[in-house]
Specification:
The complex is a heterodimer of chains A (110) and B (905). By secondary structure, chain A is α+β, with helices and mostly antiparallel strands. Chain A is 57% helix and 15% strand. Chain A has one domain: Arc Repressor Mutant, subunit A. A three-stranded antiparallel β-sheet of chain A has the order 1-3-2. Chain A has four helices and three strands; from the N terminus they run H-E-H-H-E-E-H. With 905 residues, chain B is an alpha+beta fold. In chain B, a hairpin with a 5-residue loop joins strand 2 and strand 3. In chain B, helix 6 packs across helix 15, helix 15 runs antiparallel to helix 16 and helix 18 runs antiparallel to helix 24. Chain B starts with a helix and ends with a helix. The chains are: A alpha+beta (110), B alpha+beta (905). Chains A and B meet through helix 2, helix 3 and strand 3 of A and helix 1, helix 2 and helix 4 of B.
Chain lengths: 110, 905
């Protein structure tokens, strides 16, 4: 059940979910679609890893969930970013950018 | 914060599992539906879309499984499942379960009960703040081989000198226990009291429950104040808080109660329950305690608290310096005495004597537990072998080996924890009944109980037992090759050789440890028997004894004392039903002997040799007749042997044989004290049989009897000015009637002479003897019952293993018989397989018995730890029991009809 296109770097799925939820509260399918669309199909998320990640983030107090009606009037669980999640996202983003720059430097150097 | 949320989330999903799953299913279904709709929009058919989504995103069930493993609660849940599975499988075989739990309960219960003794007596720190700094300071007198004297005791001048001149102690004081006559509140009674320096309370550092303790200043000023024990306060004063300031009468002198100590305060930490101090008084040494013989009486002890940073060695060399000073000041009559100061930790001093007993008990009970473990492991192994097919099928269907292993261990844990719980209850019952029966040689008996450390120990023991017993068989079971097992089908072929080896090893181990314990218990029983054969030297039947102590306050002169004694003896002689009476300062079998140096005419000790010690009993009237002590030579004392006449003595056989071997002791002379002490000669007029002053298994000491009337005269310079004699003694009385009938009469007679005088420790001599034998009886009974239990358990184990191996080889036996092997051949074959195990086990067990001998030696009496009779008997008994255990299965195997057994397949 490996992700079809390219495996996510370990731990980055949490960051992508937080980023997606930073725009607006969203249900599980919406998050998956949004990640695929924004990454232009590079990342494909399967249900298992996605929901495990949701569970983990909820436990950590970064997001919370609530049942709402969807645009086409179905009941779905929406995930909402919490204040702590927002902080976490910005620190993770900064850390990510630092790493990307560093890796780029190493690659250029060789 | 997030940890809390994590726990809360986990708990929520644990307890509202249904709801959590429903919610998740709904969410997941929504997710998959949305994905499917998306595919349908792209032009797929409904079923194609559903299949594509399952491939791309993962199916419902797989995802659900993945999600289940998130968070810590999944571990709990798995465990819970295993637990339910374990309980369910155990319920299916109630016989096995009951047997296993019962065995474990006995093993863990016995071990826990004994451990609570180990914990209370040996391990728990003393109940004082910073107990590590508390030490006992005392002298060792060179050459005084006095086994029964308290180790490292001190004299009155020692107390003064050590307190004044040592520098290593922040507090240091002397103490001395004795009986006090208590009157003025309720019936007159004798109470155990401790006279001690005010510094002792300071050293111990335990604040009183009520009021205050006395100070060194009050001690020096001889203030008559008293501190009560909690027990005394509750029983005699009904826990009245107004007791402070009230007056109690001790030996007819008024003392003011100034404090009550808390319930768990105990000092000195005497062995046994009955000897605990009920009252503390200032030591307030009297001037006469520093003079003459009293100054050389090592009858007190000292306890101190080391200054911070001072080691025991430093304190000892500091005290040694003071001891040398003290020796330099010795009066002429003590010139040849050499002493050394010894400092030991209070903890060590308290537990040293109890340690061998407690260790031996603990080792014995651990052996029982090991056998229980081996048995349980054997049972589980047999079960595991029976379930080989089940394991095989499950492994073939994809169960992970780890899961099977986990389930096997959980199952055995369920057994062991159930056993542990019941065992704990058994231990609680045993302790409630048993603590009062513990031998009076154990210190800190009050602190024995089921407290937290003991409970934790029991729980840990149960878990460990379960783990150990469960793991080995489980490993053995899952190691079997799946294909082999399944291929064998329903056939009960012979079990794999590794299982057989494991089972044999278990049985051999059981036989070995059971034999060790059997041999040990045999040795103890033989020791007990030998002890019972030892002659007491007196006739304990029909004899009553009681102690009186005349208070100085009332009986100030010798004539007052003599008047009391004369009236008492007169009145007793008048009684009908009294054959003989006497008064003696030492009661046989009571264990309160006290040896002092004596000098024998013509017997010059070489320098550095041991001192000549003898136990001197002061007697009046005819205790020889009353106690039934045989007179071997010469005469007993007469009325005419009094203060004015020639000094006379009677010696025991041991004394006569040691100093006048092969000679007539009558007419020989001896005197009290050391050669340099100027004391008058005493002429021996009689020789009597050796009498055991302690229990039968103690060594007989040289004994000298003197008329009490001649005691002061015979002491010469050792007597202090105005010393009185005969102020205390044991009344012994021989009656043709049952001695208990004389008790009230004896009490009434004493009350008539002095209504305030209590009689102490009134006892039948037969009781005194059984009391002195109690510690040995306790050891013997306990270890023998452990041995019986272990033998029984190991026979059970042997039976189980042989029976099972016979049952699983039924077919093989049938084939053998069908091919013409006679029935007796089959029986012999099975018996010999049992005998082989027994032989190996017995060999190892003998080695174990040899190893245990070191621990045991101090408990044996006149028997070697390698006594061939006992060892041979144990081996033969064990072999026979093994044969009996294998005979039953052998008979069954030989009686099967070979045709039936073969057709069954």
């Amino acid at each position: 059940m490996a992700d079809k296109s390219s495996d996510l770097v370990q731990g980055t799925l949490d960051m992508l979910i937080l980023k997606t939820l930073a725009l607006e509260p969203m249900h599980g399918y919406g998050v998956a679609i949004r990640i695929e669309q924004i990454s232009r199909g590079v990342f494909r998320v399967n249900a298992g890893s996605l929901f495990v990640a949701f569970q983990r983030l909820q436990r950590a107090g970064l997001i919370r969930s609530e049942w709402r009606a969807t645009e086409n009037n179905r009941r779905a669980k929406y995930y909402v970013l919490m204040e702590q999640g927002r902080k976490k996202l910005s620190s993770e983003t900064r850390e990510w950018e630092r790493q990307v720059v560093a890796i780029a430097r190493i690659l250029e150097a060789s | 914060m997030s940890l809390l949320r994590n726990i809360a989330g986990g708990l929520r999903s644990l307890f509202r599992k249904g709801q959590a799953y429903r919610e998740f299913d709904e969410e997941l279904r929504g997710f998959l539906d949305a994905a499917t709709e998306e595919k349908i929009k792209q032009g797929m058919s409904h079923s194609e879309a559903a299949r594509a989504v399952r491939l791309e995103r993962g199916g419902l069930d797989a995802t659900r499984e993945m999600l289940r493993d998130v968070g810590w609660e999944s571990v709990v849940e798995n465990f819970w499942q295993d637990l339910r599975f374990g309980v369910r499988t155990l319920r299916k075989s109630p016989g096995f379960t009951a047997l296993a739990v019962l065995m474990l309960a006995l093993g863990i219960g016995a071990t826990t009960a004994i451990f609570s003794i180990v914990e209370g007596v040996l391990l728990r720190p003393l109940p004082f703040p910073e107990p590590g700094r508390l030490v006992i300071l005392g002298d060792v007198v060179e050459g005084s081989h006095c086994a029964s004297c308290a180790p490292s005791s001190v004299t009155a001048p020692d107390i003064r000198n050590y307190m004044r001149y040592t520098q290593s102690f922040s507090h240091l004081g002397g103490y001395r226990g004795r009986l006090f006559e208590l009157s003025g509140t309720g019936d007159p009674a004798a109470v155990n009291a401790t006279r001690m320096s005010g510094e002792v309370f300071a050293a111990l550092g335990v604040p009183p429950l009520l009021g205050r303790t006395f100070t060194q200043q009050e001690d020096d000023e001889r203030q008559q104040v008293a501190v009560l024990s909690y027990g005394m306060w509750r029983t005699r004063f009904h826990g009245d808080a107004n007791v402070l300031g009230s007056t109690i009468i001790l030996y007819r002198k008024p003392y003011t109660v100034i404090g009550v100590m808390p319930r768990d305060f105990e000092f000195p930490l005497n062995p046994g329950l009955v000897n605990q101090s009920e009252l503390w008084l200032p030591l307030s040494l009297q001037p006469e305690e520093f003079t003459a013989g009293a100054a050389s009486a090592w009858n007190s002890r000292m306890v101190g608290r080391l200054k911070p940073g001072i080691t025991i060695e430093q304190a000892q060399s500091d005290a040694e310096r003071v001891a040398q000073e003290t020796m330099r000041d010795y009066p002429a009559h003590m010139r040849s005495l050499r002493i050394h100061a010894v400092v030991t930790s209070l903890q060590e001093d308290t537990v040293a004597q109890a340690r061998p007993l407690v260790r031996t008990l603990f080792s014995a009970v651990i052996v029982v537990l090991l056998i229980v473990c081996a048995n349980l492991a054997g049972l589980l192994l047999v079960r595991a072998i029976r379930r080989r097919r089940e394991f095989g099928v499950r492994l073939a269907l994809g169960a992970r080996a780890v899961v099977l292993l986990r389930q096997a261990v959980v199952e055995s844990m369920v057994l062991s924890i159930a056993g542990g719980a019941i065992g704990l209850a058994l231990a609680a019952v045993a302790l409630r009944v048993g603590v009062s029966r513990l031998p009076q040689t154990l210190p800190r008996v009050n602190e024995i109980g089921l407290d937290w450390p003991v409970m934790l120990f029991a729980l840990g023991l149960a878990l460990l037992t379960g783990l150990l017993c469960g793991l080995a068989p489980a490993f053995a079971a899952i190691r079997t090759s799946v294909n082999e097992t399944l291929k064998q089908g329903g056939r009960t072929g012979t079990a794999g050789s590794s299982h057989a080896r494991l089972r044999s090893a278990l049985v051999v181990a059981e036989i070995a440890v059971a034999l060790t314990l059997l041999a040990v218990s045999g040795l103890l029983l033989r020791s007990f028997e030998k002890m019972r054969d030892v002659k007491l030297g007196f006739r304990p039947d029909h004899t009553l004894a009681a102690l009186y102590v005349l208070p100085r306050q009332q009986y100030r002169t010798q004539s007052a004392i003599d008047e009391f004694t004369k009236t008492l003896l007169n009145d007793l002689e008048q009684l009908p039903g009294v054959d003989a009476i006497g008064i003696t300062s030492f009661l046989p079998a009571a264990g309160n002997e006290w040896s002092v140096p004596v000098t024998i005419e013509g017997h010059i000790p070489s320098s550095g040799a041991a001192l000549n010690m003898a136990a001197i009993s002061l007697v009046e009237s005819d205790p020889f007749e009353a106690l039934g002590i045989r007179v071997l030579r010469g005469r007993v004392f007469a009325e005419s042997d009094n203060a004015g006449s020639q000094l006379v003595a009677i010696v025991n056989r041991k004394m006569a044989e040691r100093y006048w071997p092969g000679q007539e002791p009558i007419g020989k002379r001896l005197r009290r004290g050391l050669p340099e002490s100027s004391t008058p000669w005493i002429t021996v007029v009689g020789e009597v049989d050796d009498v055991k002053l302690g229990s039968r298994d103690t060594e007989t000491v040289p004994q000298v009897y003197q008329p009490v009337t001649q005691s002061v005269a015979s002491k010469g310079v050792l007597a202090s000015v105005g010393e009185l004699s005969a102020a205390d003694g044991w009344i012994v009385l021989r009656t043709p009637m049952a001695p208990e009938q004389m008790q009230t009469t004896l009490r009434a007679i004493v009350r008539k002479i002095d209504p305030q005088l209590p009689l102490n420790q009134m006892q039948m001599m037969e009781h005194a003897i059984s009391k002195s034998e109690a510690p040995r009886r306790f050891n013997t009974v306990l270890i023998s019952s452990f041995a019986m239990a272990s033998v029984l358990l190991s026979v059970l184990g042997i039976y189980g293993v042989i029976a099972f191996s016979v049952a699983s080889r039924e077919q093989e036996m049938a084939v053998r018989m069908a091919l013409g092997c006679p029935r007796s051949g089959v029986i012999l074959f099975i018996l010999s397989s049992g005998a082989k195990l027994a032989a190996v086990g017995c060999g190892l067990g003998l080695l174990g018995a040899v190893a245990a001998s070191g621990l045991l030696r101090s408990f044996l009496f006149e028997i070697s730890p390698f006594d061939p009779g006992v060892l041979a008997f144990s081996v033969i008994a064990m072999l026979l029991l093994t044969l009996i255990a294998s005979a039953l299965p052998a008979r069954r195997a030989s009686s099967t009809d070979p045709m039936l057994a073969l057709r069954e397949q």
